[in-house]
Write a structure and sequence with these properties.
single chain, alpha/beta, 3 domains, eight-stranded mixed beta sheet, three-stranded antiparallel beta sheet, elongated
């Protein structure tokens, strides 16, 4: 159909007599429309699309027209737009709808930080080719982050962290699992297939890949959870003044928070007198860590020497700490509770020496001593410490009690002080004014308590040193940060 025939058809339908058209001269002329140099579409999926209008087409309100100010050019604006920092602020400043679509208003777009870099026409052509060849936006960002953000004095690890933050925000927006296959395709990064199952959050954490900070071999230890803790705290708006672990045990979580400086002060609480003796010696006793480290380094472990230490009775805290470390290292699974057996064959037939690494233990203890100004240890009741800090909105809690609520009741054989009022613990958690994270076995009774107090739950996977995949339940008020 020719243009003349098309207009004639409009006249036959009396379109020229309608409200807007009858005020135009001629009636088919659309006013206040100019051809922009570039556009950004108001809604997007994986990332906003900022385009150069090389075809010189007109746009409706589905896209915002861009006219660069003097001293700027559209090629450089488009090139500078595609970096992790700017795209992070797109996610933060924009809004999204049920299907996960991101929308930016003109005001929100104008408020975006864009590290502008002037480039030549040749550089822009190279940039276009890269966009055409790349399988995902991640490849573009990896190159542009280095080029554009270097002026902000960011390290390579800082740039990697920015990319991780953008991915977290993107996953939060595209929570609907129907969107996840497109994420896998467009990111071009390794995401395990179990990621498509929303009942288990991934990736699976292997404990062997996490830095070991604690001198304990602790049953139910949370080494595998360390990356999740970093996720959780890095998503907080402000750095917590206090990080409280009311059931500290081996304290790998609290120690990691202190080493990584994710909180101003880490408070470890433990009721068991044997475990408490170790932390009191390392954290609360002057030169206690040095003494304990030296005792371990110079001790020749034999069945007879170990038996002499373990069977000894002492009221001196540091002696009790040394006794605890020996017992923890020679018992099956590191269990300190009454009735725990001593290793017989151990790893590769080494018996009680199979878990005895004096140099490693010495280093861990002395490393903790170097940061003990960030640590506070309290021997006492975790419930009482929670009550005292309920109203402190600048305190966060990591609550990992003995697992005795389910039929398995594993905590009863692993810990001396295994009796816990879980009903009261959940009630206290519901009244915490700051944030908290709880971990439990996945049991119906636990999920029922979470539902009762309107907490969210996420089943997360971990792989132990034998590469066996296991799951535990995370509980909190808002677990959107879990990916």
């Amino acid at each position: 159909m020719s243009v003349q025939n098309y207009l004639q058809k409009g006249l036959q339908q009396d379109i020229h007599q309608r409200f807007k058209t009858k005020h135009r001269t001629p009636w088919y002329n659309v006013p206040v429309v100019w051809i922009p140099e570039g556009v950004i579409f108001k809604r997007s999926h994986l990332y906003p699309k900022l385009l150069k209008n090389e075809a010189r087409v007109l746009f409706t309100d589905t896209a915002y027209r861009i006219c660069p100010k003097e001293g700027f050019n559209i090629d450089s604006i488009i090139y500078s737009f595609y970096n992790s920092l700017t795209l992070i602020f797109c996610e933060l400043n924009g809004r999204f709808y049920g299907g996960g679509v991101l929308e930016l208003t003109p005001k929100e777009f104008k408020g975006l930080p864009i590290p502008y870099k002037s480039i030549s026409e040749e550089q822009f052509l190279d940039f276009k080719k890269l966009f055409t060849k790349s399988e995902s936006i991640e490849q573009i960002l990896q190159q542009n982050d280095t080029q554009l953000l270097i002026g902000l004095e960011l390290t390579s690890s800082d740039l990697e962290r920015l990319r991780e933050i953008r991915q977290k925000l993107l996953i939060h927006r595209l929570k609907n699992k129907m969107n996840l296959p497109s994420l896998i395709k467009h990111w071009g990064i390794a995401i395990q297939s179990s990621f498509l199952d929303t009942s288990v959050s991934t990736p699976v954490i292997n404990v062997a890949s996490v830095s070991q900070r604690s001198p304990f071999r602790y049953p139910g230890g949370k080494t595998w959870l360390v990356p999740r803790i970093r996720q959780w705290l890095s998503n907080a708006l402000t750095k917590p003044q206090k990080f409280i672990e009311p059931f500290a045990g081996g304290a790998i979580v609290g120690l990691t928070v202190a080493f990584d400086q994710l909180a101003d002060l880490v408070i470890l609480v433990e009721r068991d007198e044997q475990v408490a003796a170790v932390w009191e010696t390392i954290i609360n006793t002057q030169d206690g860590a040095e003494w304990l480290a030296n005792q371990i380094a110079t001790f020749e472990l034999t069945p007879e020497a170990a038996e002499a230490v373990v069977s000894s009775r002492t009221r001196i805290i540091r002696n009790k700490a040394f006794k605890t470390i020996i017992q923890n290292r020679i018992n099956h699974g590191g269990i300190l509770a009454p009735g725990a057996g001593v290793l017989k064959h151990g790893e590769n037939g080494k018996g009680i020496t199979s878990r005895w690494y004096p140099e490693t233990l010495q280093k861990r203890i002395l490393d903790i001593a170097k940061i003990k100004q960030r640590l506070k240890f309290i021997r006492g009741d975790g419930f009482e410490i929670i009550r005292k800090n309920l109203r402190n909105n600048k305190a966060v809690f990591f609550i990992d009690p003995p697992y005795t609520v389910s039929a398995k009741k594993a905590g009863a054989r692993l810990y001396k002080y295994h009796q816990v009022d879980h009903e009261e613990l959940f009630w206290l958690a519901s009244r915490i004014e700051g944030d908290f994270l709880m971990t439990y076995d996945d049991a119906e009774e636990v999920r029922a308590l979470a539902v009762k107090h309107r907490f969210e739950t996420r089943l997360v996977a971990m792989s132990n040193t034998r590469n066996t995949t296991m799951t535990e339940l995370l509980i909190g008020r808002n677990l959107d940060w879990v990916i």
